[in-house]
Specification:
With 390 residues, this protein is α/β, with parallel strands linked by helices. 34% of the residues lie in helices and 23% in strands. It binds magnesium ion.
Length: 390
């Protein structure tokens, strides 16, 4: 193709999708935990970028709060060369400087989908492929509030054994969010006792411990069980350099921080402050695939590893092109739920408990762009709002 694809229209669509048997905790700001009979909703946002070359980029993000930022960014994108992601990323940082800049991510991923379709190649190949098989850890749903699922330290131990048997290389605890410190510590020990030495083990309290003492106590349990990493323990929201540096000094378990600081500069500052061991990034939160690759390469410069946040097609393409990364986060998974996600793919793509192969890996989609097909026909009936920018 000789002509560049120029952006002529952006369509943003919000959906409200039902999730059965899943509970939602308003005081925690998110699910996902098992609650038989309950109905909750997820509100993804689809981004479609149309170009004058007839190529359309398509991406669905699970972070609908970026809608406003994308609307601010939208008019700047019209008439631009869709292949000039670096130009768009850098200008978007200024345009969204009074926001958290999370609006850049879904736009950038959609532009990468256009690039892949334009060059007829999967994104990971354009990035420079490193691998095709991604070793997974099972990332659990949050602890249940009712009986019968992940309701006790023993239940987490049982589930860890099940995941080991399925072939998983790692297991990450997401606990109850309503802190019972005793139970938190018991869960770390129970999982360690059952599968320690056989899988990499992690725990992610999701920023709910109120005190340094609590964070330290659970960290010391992780030390005893030889955990692979300890993630986001504190109520500071995972951002304080000083706190995490102090915690690191007192624990032997590596910390994983960075999910809640955004873009390459803030991640580099966190590492320079010695506030983390593993780095964390997400294409939706951190400037898209462009932003994640910058963070991965910055971490590479420090001799450190970048672990991607949650699973999805964009994460798979990134990880397939990153050397310094250990695991793909498969989740959130639960022993009683076949899936904790609404399946809006019509190409067979899934991130479910049983999506791994016998080696505990998933693969990267091989089609052009993201290499997935969204089922917009199915999604139609769940549409809440549609916004056109042109
Ligand atoms: Mg996390």
């Amino acid at each position: 193709m000789n002509n560049v694809p120029v952006i002529k229209k952006i369509k943003l669509t919000r959906f409200r999708l039902p999730l059965n048997d899943i509970g939602y905790d308003v005081s925690f700001g998110q699910g996902v935990f098992y609650e038989p009979g309950s109905l909750t909703y997820t509100s993804p946002l689809s981004i479609q970028i149309f170009t004058d070359e007839g190529i359309t980029g398509e991406y669905i993000t699970g972070t609908p709060s970026v809608l406003e930022q994308i609307q601010i960014l939208g008019p700047f994108l019209i008439g631009k060369n869709a292949l000039e992601r670096e130009y768009i990323y850098n200008n978007a940082k200024s345009i969204l400087r009074k926001h958290d800049r999370m609006g850049i991510g879904p736009i950038d991923v959609t532009l990468w989908d256009i690039a892949g379709k334009y060059f007829n190649a999967p994104i990971y190949q354009l990035l420079g492929g490193y691998r095709k098989k991604l070793p997974c850890y099972a990332s659990t749903a949050h602890g249940d509030r009712t009986k019968g699922g992940l309701d006790s330290p023993e239940a987490y131990g049982d589930f860890a054994e099940q995941c080991l048997e399925l072939g998983y290389k790692g297991f990450k605890i997401h606990s109850w969010a309503q802190v019972d410190l005793n139970k938190e510590i018991k869960t770390v020990h129970e999982v360690g006792r059952r599968v320690g030495g056989k899988m990499a083990l992690m725990t992610d309290p999701c920023c709910v411990y109120d005190t340094f003492a609590d964070a330290l106590a659970v960290g010391r349990a992780c030390d005893e069980e030889n955990f692979f990493w300890y993630e986001d323990p504190m109520r500071d929201g995972g951002v304080s350099h000083y706190f995490h540096r102090q915690l690191r000094k007192m624990l032997k378990t590596p910390l994983l921080q960075g999910e809640h600081v955004h873009l390459v500069e803030a991640h580099s500052d966190m590492a320079a402050a010695e506030a983390t061991d593993f780095w964390r990034a997400d294409p939706d939160y951190d400037g898209g695939i462009t932003g994640v690759m910058k963070i991965a390469h910055a971490a590479e410069g420090y001799g450190m590893d970048l672990e991607l946040h949650v699973g999805g097609p964009a994460q798979r393409h990134c990880m397939a092109a990153i050397r310094n990364s250990n695991f793909y986060e498969l989740g959130l998974v639960h022993p009683k739920l076949e899936s904790t996600r609404f399946n809006y793919f019509k190409c067979g793509y899934q991130d479910n408990l049983t999506s791994i192969d016998k080696d505990g890996c998933v693969t990267v989609p091989e089609g052009p762009g993201l290499g997935v097909e969204y089922d917009f026909e199915l999604l139609k009936k769940y549409k809440v709002e549609e916004i056109i920018i042109k």
